[in-house]
From TrEMBL:
<dbReference type="InterPro" id="IPR009006">
    <property type="entry name" value="Ala_racemase/Decarboxylase_C"/>
</dbReference>
<dbReference type="Pfam" id="PF02784">
    <property type="entry name" value="Orn_Arg_deC_N"/>
</dbReference>
<dbReference type="InterPro" id="IPR000183">
    <property type="entry name" value="Orn/DAP/Arg_de-COase"/>
</dbReference>
<dbReference type="InterPro" id="IPR022643">
    <property type="entry name" value="De-COase2_C"/>
</dbReference>
<feature type="domain" description="Orn/DAP/Arg decarboxylase 2 N-terminal">
    <location>
        <begin position="27"/>
        <end position="274"/>
    </location>
</feature>
<dbReference type="InterPro" id="IPR022653">
    <property type="entry name" value="De-COase2_pyr-phos_BS"/>
</dbReference>
<dbReference type="InterPro" id="IPR002986">
    <property type="entry name" value="DAP_deCOOHase_LysA"/>
</dbReference>
<keyword id="KW-0663">Pyridoxal phosphate</keyword>
<dbReference type="InterPro" id="IPR022644">
    <property type="entry name" value="De-COase2_N"/>
</dbReference>
<dbReference type="InterPro" id="IPR029066">
    <property type="entry name" value="PLP-binding_barrel"/>
</dbReference>
<protein>
    <submittedName>
        <fullName>Diaminopimelate decarboxylase</fullName>
    </submittedName>
</protein>
<dbReference type="Pfam" id="PF00278">
    <property type="entry name" value="Orn_DAP_Arg_deC"/>
</dbReference>
<keyword id="KW-0456">Lyase</keyword>
<dbReference type="InterPro" id="IPR022657">
    <property type="entry name" value="De-COase2_CS"/>
</dbReference>
<feature type="domain" description="Orn/DAP/Arg decarboxylase 2 C-terminal">
    <location>
        <begin position="275"/>
        <end position="372"/>
    </location>
</feature>
<comment type="similarity">
    <text>Belongs to the Orn/Lys/Arg decarboxylase class-II family.</text>
</comment>
Length: 418
């Protein structure tokens, strides 16, 4: 904070800013590759942080890109990802989306039988495509602690429901009749899901891949895409679970993935980005109401969308700093019960509620930790922030270097930088 203030990255005009730690990103990507064997290739879920400069360094660190919309595909291309390193996963692909992917050798995961019909037509138009094409499978193994992010329930909107009716045999027949189907995909976990549950979903599709190949009599399915969804610990700085923890459970439950028989792809997002970014916002006003100290800032539901609308599922840690960038602690300030509020005009626009924090005053700063994924790159009302900046930071504690990723005053400026 002191360095950011001294270099005018943060000044008295600041409303909200996001800072990404590029050194931390590099270490996190390295940890992912170190945890898995060489037949694993890791892609980054672009929706987790759709900033071109962040994606560009992730590409340089060796990651591919998983995209779920045409906009994300455009951003990934602007960040320099090669077509063969991109996977398009949207459950609502238009015919144009599918044609773009197949024509340009971008891999896709088919969500349903109606989409399969479209893909078949396009395969006749582009029989020499190098797109790796497969089905997204819903293993229907159940959900985790957060229902809104559970993707493997019996009624999930995602993927081909494997356990319904005669779907398993129908899918085997589909693959037997279409040799261009060479992949299987599932995304069975996310925040709130136990690693064992995620591994179970991956075990299901690995067994399915073996069954398809055995039925055909050769290895037609050569890629297994195990999705992402590794949970993040938002309660402290500790990185738990780690990629190594996940790899150990996968190796125990699905050892075939570690034998080099299949190419395995991942789609980590939050686990890559979250702990490598923070949001800092300025306290504009404070007051007391009903015995509660309320600090009004410029970062609320328009940035911390999930936290504002689902605070029990998505709590975040906050730290207060003085206007000079000095951390406020119980040794230096009175600790009071505090709500940190955002600028939006509804009662639920709160970053945290009833927290014991060193007392905040106007022109202090609040830092929200672990917000490098699904926060500052996805706020829904950009024009509500009169000044937004996103910076990268690298170096050790005494020699920090800041570089601008994005700093703009209007939506048009942002669009021109994409």
């Amino acid at each position: 904070m002191k360095t950011a203030i001294a270099t005018n990255v943060i000044d008295s005009d600041l409303t909200a800013i996001g800072i990404m730690d590029f050194d931390g990103l590099q270490k996190t990507v390295a940890a992912a590759y170190d945890a898995f064997p060489k037949n694993f290739f890791h892609t980054f879920a672009v929706k987790a942080n759709a900033l071109v400069e962040v994606l560009r360094v992730l590409r340089e660190y060796g990651m591919g890109a998983e995209v779920a919309s045409p906009g994300e595909l455009l951003i990934a291309k602007n960040a320099g990802f090669l077509n063969q390193d991109i996977i398009f996963d949207s459950p609502a692909k238009t015919l144009h989306d599918l044609r773009t992917c197949i024509k340009n050798d971008i891999s896709i995961n088919i969500d349903n039988l109606q989409e399969l019909t479209r893909v078949e037509q396009l395969m006749q138009e582009h029989p020499n495509t190098k797109s790796v094409i497969g089905f997204r499978i819903n293993p229907q193994i159940g959900g985790g602690a957060i229902s809104s992010t559970s993707t493997a329930t019996a009624t999930s909107k995602f993927g081909y429901p494997l356990a319904d009716a005669n779907n398993r045999q129908e899918l085997i027949n589909i693959y037997r009749q279409r040799p261009w189907l060479t992949s299987l995909h599932t995304h069975s976990g996310s925040q709130g899901c136990a690693l064992e549950l995620m591994a179970k979903g991956i075990e299901v599709i690995t067994e399915l891949a073996e069954e398809i190949n055995n039925n055909i009599g050769s290895q037609q399915v050569v890629r297994i895409d195990i999705g992402g969804g590794l949970p993040v610990n938002f309660a402290s700085e500790d990185v738990t679970p780690s990629f190594a923890d996940y790899a150990q459970i996968l190796k125990k439950n699905v050892p075939l993935l570690f034998t080099n028989k299949y190419q395995v792809k991942t789609e980590f997002g939050r686990a890559i980005a979250a702990k490598n970014g923070v949001i800092i916002t300025r306290v504009e006003y404070t007051k007391n109401s009903g015995g509660r100290h309320i600090a009004t800032t410029h970062a609320g539901a328009q940035i911390f969308t999930r936290t504002a609308f689902l605070p029990k599922s998505w709590p975040i840690r906050v730290t207060g700093f003085s206007a000079e960038g000095i951390e406020k602690t119980a040794d230096t300030c009175e600790v009071v019960t505090t709500d940190v509020a955002g600028p939006c005009c509804f009662a639920g626009d709160l970053i945290c509620v009833g927290k014991q924090l060193p007392k905040l005053v106007p022109n202090d700063y609040v830092m929200a930790h672990d917000t490098g994924g699904y926060y500052f790159s996805n706020h829904f009302d950009y024009n509500s922030l009169p000044r937004v900046g996103v910076f990268s930071v690298s170096g050790d504690d005494e020699n920090l270097n800041f570089s601008c990723i994005r700093k703009a005053d209007s939506f048009e400026d942002v669009a021109n930088k994409m």
